[in-house]
Amino acid sequence: MKKITAIYTFALLMVLFVALVIINDKLFDSTRIDLTEQKVFTLSDGSHQIIDEIEEPVTLYYFFSDDATKGMTALRNYADRVKSLLREYEKAANGKIRLRFIDPEPFSEAEDKAARFGLTGATLGNNNDTVYFGLAGTNTLDDQITIEFFDPQKANFLEYDISKMLHQLSIGSSPKLALITDLPVQGGQNPITGQNESSMVFYEQLSQLFDVHLISPDDTQLPEETAVVMLAHPPKMSEALKYAVDQYAMAQGQVIAFIDPHYESDMLSLMGNQQANRSDMSLLKSWGIDIPADRIVLDGVLGLEVQSASGSVVKHPGYLGLGKGQLHNDDVITANLDSLNIASAGEITLLPSSTLDMDVLMQTSDDGFVTDTEYYLSHPDPEDLQQKLGSSGQAKVLAAHITGTTISAFGQPPEGADKTQFKATTDKLNLLVISDADMLADRFWVQQNQFFGQTLYSPFANNGDFVVNAAENLAGSNALIDVRSRGQFARPFSRVASLERKAQKQYREHEQKLRDELAQTESQLAQLQNQQGQGTSLVLTDEQQRTIDAFVEKRVAVRKQLRDVQYELRSDIDKLGNWLKFVNIAAAPLVLVMTLYLLTLVLRRRAGSRFNRN
Q1: pLDDT tens digit string along 24-33?
Q2: The pLDDT of residue 33
Q3: pLDDT tens digit string along 201-241?
Q4: Where is the ABC-type uncharacterised transport system domain (predicted)?
């Protein structure tokens, strides 16, 4: 009887399980709970805004080679995530997005269609099968945009890439952006190495969203219907172009200025040229904004780790890694960014006579300092720059949104200009100023990778996001800004960072003294040894030999002390790591076992008490 009851119970559970699966699939398919901290599996408000702005239906073709990827678990899991997110777009669009799933099998019409869209087929697996994993979109005007291949390394930007595609399909024409620069943004042949270089990634990103017009500093005018003017480390501009930019700003135009006291990412600076590579700052100064060309900002707390001349890894106080604490959380341009990397930046201030308003977007920590540009250039070793750091600094402004009233940089129109169109003042200046142009260079924010024969770029900082955010914001489009940078989970170990700062402050001076003492000892020892080796006629006395032996012993002792100091720099962090390992490996399972044991005792006592009462 008990056996029959157990069979019936098991059969009933199986039926109940199948019924629940069917009910969940039919009734609750659209119901989901996103438990991630930043809601990365939920469409952002920006994506919903882009979907709401779609006026004509958009068709999305999702290509994934299902048969060819069998056994590739990681890639298939990511493909399921892409498919799930596309379904979220389809449901939110209420019919304005038509989604098609296509498996482009070899030698099929579907494969030909993928090729016509320009999708990339990667060769994977032992059978050399071609795998398609991309997205193509079309609108009623026959505009076509593709994501050639979904790179799993760019999973953090998945929603942004899809939303950007929908935005481009919905707006039709792109805003016009005038980029004034002589940087090699389009790539080409390097005049020193003779090698062909790719275009700069920030330029490629801007070109996807804007109709970018490159303007040489020697040109004389801006394109008509320009939506945004961007100055990217311009050298001395022609007077006619200065006047055009000035009058554009006076007419409530939108200007973004990357102005640098020293742009060190060009080839000459990288090869050791010690001449300052300054931007043309004359326009900003005429409007009431000051970025001293002879001063560079340092910060010992935010310094990025580099290798020093001695071979050790140290923080470079001129190469700064800005985190959320240094970015304006309430401004739409920087609110969703996690990190920005800059180098040899200047300090932004308003002149005493200025009537402008300045909203800070980026700044240093409270340990910010400035040093002479000449000293910075003549001391490339970060350990030398660390000696310039003092004990009491203050936050320095590195980027700002500047608005308000100002006057033209020109007292009157230049000869040949239309005097009837001249604007001497404006009360609605709209200007973004960034005191660094090195942040535009690929080496400070993006890493180049080869993925199945294709060059892909994986960002490790949000520099490109900042540039595009700024351009979109001034061009009047805010929808994509809410989407960008979602899903970045760079969780800084604040306790570890605090211990590192404390240790460096405590031991830096001691370490430097030991290094100086070691250098002096080795110098004196080398002199004595050279004297000994200058000729066979030289015979050292016992006292001189004892001196050499003493210096050798002293060198060994100083090196040991130096190793001890360097060990102390990590000891507190290692202790914290050991405690974390103990908690995760031993303490947590032990607590769980004890909890289950206590729960078992409680249940036994309750069962025993009920039995005794009966």
Answers
A1: 656 655 566 6
A2: 66
A3: 999 999 988 999 999 999 999 999 899 999 999 988 999 99
A4: 175-470
Q: What is the pLDDT of residue 490?
A: 47
d(CA 521, CA 206): 56
Highest mean pLDDT pick, 243-257, 369-383, 495-509, 593-607 = 243-257
Between β-strands 188-189 and 176-180, what pairing exists: parallel, antiparallel or unpaired? Answer: unpaired
State yes or no: pLDDT of 196 exceeds 70: yes
- What is the helix (H) or strand (E) element at residue 122, kind and residue range? strand 121-124
Determine phi and psi for 440, rounding to 5 degrees.
-80, -20
* Contacting residues for 277 by C-beta, under 8 A, at least 6 apart: 260, 262, 263, 264, 266, 268, 269
Which among 353, 337, 484, 442 has a CA at the least distance from the CA of 399? 337
Residues 471, 601: Cα–Cα separation, whole Å: 65
Distances (CA, A) of 361 to 64, 358, 479, 557: 41, 9, 19, 49
Tell whether the model's pLDDT for residue 384 goes beyond 70. Answer: yes
Pairing outcome for strands 176-180 and 58-64: unpaired
Q: Report how far residue 335's alpha carbon sits from residue 462's, in angstroms, rounded to the nearest whole number.
A: 12
The DSSP letter of residue 302 is: T
Query: What pTM, to 2 d.p., does this model score?
Result: 0.62
Cβ contacts of 253 within 8 Å, gap of 6 or more: 226, 229, 430
Rounded Cα–Cα distance for residues 149 and 454 (Å): 10
Asked if residue 565 lies in contact with residue 507, where contact means CB atoms within 8 angstroms, the answer is yes
Range of weakest confidence among 98-102, 132-136, 311-315, 587-591? 587-591
What the block records as the tokens of 468 is 């595009």
Is residue 342 a contact partner of residue 438, using CB atoms and an 8 Å limit? yes
Six token digits for residue 91:
């449901």
- Residues, the chain, total? 614
CB 497 within 8 A of CB 325: no
**Could you please report the per-residue DSSP string of 419-463?**
GGG---EEEEEEEEEES-SGGGSGGGTEEEEEETTEEEEEESSSH
Using alpha carbons, select from 204, 287, 277, 238 the residue that is nearest to residue 468: 204
Q: What is the DSSP letter of 108?
A: S
Quick check: helix, strand or coil at residue 54? coil
For the chain, count helices (H), then strands (E): 16, 23
